[in-house]
Specification:
Blueprint lengths: L5 E5 L3 H12 L4 E5 L2 H10 L4 E5 L7 H11 L5 E5 L4 H9 L4 E4 L4 H28 L4 E4 L2 E4 L4 E4 L2 E3 L3 H11 L8 H9 L7 H19 L5 E4 L3 E4 L12
Parallel strand pairs: 1-2, 1-3, 3-4, 4-5
Antiparallel strand pairs: 6-7, 7-8, 8-9, 10-11
Length: 248
């Protein structure tokens, strides 16, 4: 029998935490609850969770600081951030520090359940692909200058050094490198990479691209290969870009 997926709910409001726990257990997920940010970090480091549902305002350590620390150790960890703050800047900050997605309180339970299912499904696809690649030893190599993207094992390396990308950042980079010079609007990227399109979520794309650019800049030390096409969207420059597929 398959083990249920585990979710850690990091929420200091007792009623909200219990509401989340009950409704996610209805979907057969195992749920743990943590009410402090500092203890949540320790728990995340010592356990494997399919998803972290993380409140922004917490005692001990803020949700933003929790997210930062988790990303340094577990870049692949799926994180859905909850916030009572509705301003765009708060949402952008949450995404900038590494949250994969966010929901603003108040939210509907069916919408939350749908988002959780989608996030866990994507995370499991990511982990299964990496495991399969390591067992079989087969990788699809996509190369852009000094950057090598192993599509099957879902890893990115620069001169053999592993680049720590979240699952969403990897999907975004792969989409660009497999469509060089093609310009994509934010709504198109939401459709192709996130799998949904909703008014008000387009700054999610901006935040993830900024994080991806920063990581690429640190690793490669050159101008970002992901370019802004003002008034339209983004594209990957094909200069020094070549794609190849082989077993390594």
């Amino acid at each position: 029998m398959t083990e249920p997926h585990s979710i850690l709910i990091v929420e200091d409001d007792f009623d909200i935490a219990e509401l989340l726990k009950v409704n996610l257990q209805d979907l057969s997920y195992h749920c743990d609850v943590c009410r402090r940010g500092d203890t949540a970090v320790e728990q995340i480091f010592n356990h494997q969770y399919s998803l972290i549902i993380l409140d922004l305002t917490l005692p001990g350590l803020s949700g933003l600081d929790v997210c930062r620390q988790v990303r340094e150790v577990k870049p692949e960890q799926a994180i859905l951030m909850l916030t009572a703050k509705s301003s765009e800047i708060d949402q952008i900050i949450g995404l900038e520090v590494g949250a994969d997605d966010y929901m603003t309180k108040p939210f509907s339970i069916p919408a939350l359940q749908a988002r959780v299912r989608a996030r866990i499904r994507r995370s499991q696809m990511y982990l299964k692909a990496r495991q399969k690649a390591r067992v079989e030893g087969e990788y699809e190599k996509i190369q852009v200058g000094d950057l090598v993207l192993d599509s099957t094992c879902r890893e990115v390396r620069v001169e053999e050094e592993l680049l720590d990308l979240t699952a969403r950042e990897f999907d975004l980079l792969k989409h660009f490198v497999t469509h060089p010079e093609q310009v994509f609007s934010r709504s198109q990227l939401l459709d192709h990479v996130w799998g949904y399109n909703h008014d008000g979520y387009e700054h999610t794309v901006n935040s993830h691209i900024n994080r991806l650019r920063n990581k690429l800049k640190v690793a490669v030390g050159e101008k970002s290969i992901i370019q802004t096409v003002w008034g339209v969207g983004y594209r990957l420059s094909s200069k020094n870009c070549y794609l190849s597929s082989q077993s390594i």
